[in-house]
C-alpha cells in the first residue's frame, strides 16, 4: 500500500490523505524484467506510479528503438495521454521486476464525485510533473546544442588536419594535432 506523507509526495497539489486515497484505490500491476508495460501509439487513459523496480521509456523511430528515459520507484509515466486522451508517445518496458500502481479514469471520477475540486488539484499536480520534465528536457537540449556547436567549430580543423596527413600513420598524427589544439584552450 502506498501512503503519501508530507516528506514523500508524488502529486504536490493534493493533500496527503487525498493522494493516499487515490493511490490506494488504484489497481496494482506487476511485470517481470523486459515485459512490455505500455505500448507506443495506443490509447490508455491512466497514470502509472512505479512503486518498486524501474522501467525504460523508448520510442520506435525509423525501425529502431531509441531510449528516451529511465524511471524508478516514485516516478510516474502515462500522464501526457491521461491529460490529452491522445495515444502514447513511447513504449515502456520493465528493466527489472516492477510493481506499478495504476491511476485510471474510473478511480479519478469516483474521487471527483466526492469532491468536485479534486480534479483541479490532480490536474495541477500533473501539470507540475509535466513542467518539471519539460524543464529537464530543455536542459538536455541546451547541452546537446552546445555539443553540436563545439563539434561544428572544430570540424573544419579536423578535416584540414586529416587532409595534411599523408603518411600511413595518419590517425596518430591526427591525435597529435587534436592534443595540440586542446592545449591551446
Explain this structure:
With about 180 residues, this protein is an alpha+beta fold. It has a domain at about 15-140: Jelly Rolls (Sandwich), CATH 2.60.120. The protein has helices at about 15-25, 80-85, 105-115, 120-165, 170-185; strands spanning about 30, 35-40, 45-50, 55-60, 65-70, 75, 90-95, 100-105. Strands 1-8-3-6 form a four-stranded antiparallel beta sheet. Strands 2-7-4-5 form a four-stranded antiparallel beta sheet, with no helix packed on it. A hairpin with a 2-residue loop joins β4 (about 55-60) and β5. The radius of gyration is 24 Å and the shape is elongated. About 20% of the residues are buried. Mean pLDDT is about 85; it is low at about 1-5.
Number of helices: 5
Give the low-pLDDT segments. 1-7
* Percentage of residues in DSSP E strands: 15-25%
**Gap between N and C termini:** 56 Å
Shape type: elongated
Helix content class: 40-55%
Please state the oligomeric state of the protein chains shown: single chain
Q: Using the coordinates shown, work out and report the CATH topology of the domain at 16-139.
A: Jelly Rolls
At the fourth CATH level, what is the homologous superfamily of the domain at 16-139? Answer: Jelly Rolls
CATH structural class of the domain at 16-139: Mainly Beta
Helix and strand content put the structural class at alpha+beta
Helix and strand run: HEEEEEEHEEHHH
Largest beta-sheet details: 4 strands, antiparallel
Name the average pLDDT: 86
Amino acid at each position: 500500500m502506498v501512503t503519501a506523507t508530507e516528506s514523500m509526495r508524488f502529486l504536490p497539489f493534493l493533500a496527503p490523505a487525498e493522494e493516499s486515497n487515490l493511490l490506494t484505490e488504484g489497481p496494482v500491476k506487476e511485470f517481470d524484467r523486459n515485459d512490455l508495460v505500455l505500448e507506443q501509439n495506443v490509447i490508455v487513459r491512466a497514470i502509472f506510479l512505479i512503486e518498486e523496480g524501474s522501467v525504460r521509456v523508448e520510442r520506435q523511430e525509423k525501425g529502431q528503438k531509441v531510449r528516451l528515459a529511465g524511471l524508478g520507484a516514485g516516478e510516474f509515466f502515462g500522464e501526457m495521454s491521461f491529460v490529452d486522451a491522445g495515444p502514447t508517445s513511447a513504449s515502456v518496458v520493465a528493466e527489472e521486476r516492477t510493481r506499478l500502481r495504476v491511476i485510471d479514469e474510473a478511480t479519478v471520477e469516483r474521487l471527483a464525485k466526492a469532491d468536485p475540486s479534486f480534479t483541479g488539484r490532480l490536474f495541477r499536480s500533473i501539470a507540475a510533473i509535466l513542467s518539471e520534465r519539460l524543464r529537464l528536457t530543455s536542459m538536455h537540449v541546451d547541452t546537446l546544442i552546445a555539443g553540436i556547436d563545439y563539434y561544428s567549430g572544430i570540424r573544419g580543423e579536423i578535416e584540414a588536419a586529416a587532409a595534411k596527413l599523408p603518411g600511413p600513420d595518419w590517425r596518430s598524427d591526427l591525435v597529435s594535432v587534436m592534443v595540440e589544439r586542446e592545449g591551446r584552450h
